[in-house]
Design goal:
Pfam families: Lactamase_B (PF00753)
Largest sheet: 7 strands, mixed
Strand order of the largest sheet: 1-2-3-4-5-6-7
CATH superfamily: Ribonuclease Z/Hydroxyacylglutathione hydrolase-like
CATH topology: Metallo-beta-lactamase, Chain A
Radius of gyration: 15 Å
Protein name: Beta-lactamase-like protein
Distance between the termini: 24 Å
Organism: Pyrobaculum aerophilum (strain ATCC 51768 / DSM 7523 / JCM 9630 / CIP 104966 / NBRC 100827 / IM2)
Number of strands: 13
CATH class: Alpha Beta
Strand content: 15-25%
InterPro entries: Metallo-B-lactamas, NDM-1-like, RibonucZ/Hydroxyglut_hydro
Number of helices: 5
Length: 194
């Protein structure tokens, strides 16, 4: 689905944003990689919001992959990822993913391709969003109603950082807000009421 000016949304849980060959949060399951390649082409550049396996399992083989600064170890190593998330390596984890060869890291305030990197910590310490053409991909900095109804309190590493990130999203006032798990929002001016 095209949101605007070549900014495409591949719906799922999580949602995936694609601009040219730039892919934000490929998601899962692994076989979703084929659909991503059919949209983004054979040389995708993957930008991750954070290290959780449900956001990176469908990373296409051979893709350039960029992790948020401070989360690169957990993206690169499935063992580190699961240990940090669960306190132990879980061989049979549902969303395990695999080790990923990183091309680099992104830091808030930087530009990469068509995107500006926006710090949105709270869900994880290094969580970032990606902003382009009035569209903010916020990943798990916000959650849709179904997630909140199902789980009540979302998984957060730092509540204060999470609340500050919500304020930052309101201040940024994107025209369109894409969250990892939930519907697309036409957001301008509506975020304070959400």
């Amino acid at each position: 689905m095209e949101i605007k000016n070549g900014v495409r949304l591949l719906r799922g849980s999580p949602n995936t944003l694609i601009v040219g060959n730039y892919v934000v949060d490929p998601g899962q399951p692994e076989d979703r990689a084929g659909e991503i390649l059919s949209i983004a082409g054979r040389s995708p550049v993957v930008l991750l919001t954070h290290f959780h396996a449900d956001h990176l399992t469908a990373t296409p083989n051979g893709a350039e992959v960029y992790a948020p600064w401070g989360e690169e170890l957990f993206v690169a190593s499935v063992r580190a990822r699961l240990f940090f998330t669960h306190g132990v390596y879980v061989e049979g984890a549902v969303y395990k993913g695999s080790d990923i060869q990183l091309s680099g890291v992104v830091k808030p305030g930087e530009k990469i391709g068509p995107f500006e990197v926006v710090a949105l910590p709270g869900h994880t310490f290094g969580h970032v969003g990606y902003y382009t053409e009035g569209v903010l991909y916020a990943g798990d900095a916000l959650f849709g109603e179904k997630v909140l109804e199902k789980y009540g309190v979302p998984y957060l590493m730092d509540v204060d950082m999470f609340l500050s990130s919500l304020d930052k999203i309101i201040e940024l006032d994107p025209e369109t807000l894409v969250i990892g798990h939930g519907p697309l929002r036409v957001a301008r001016g509506e975020l304070r009421n959400w």
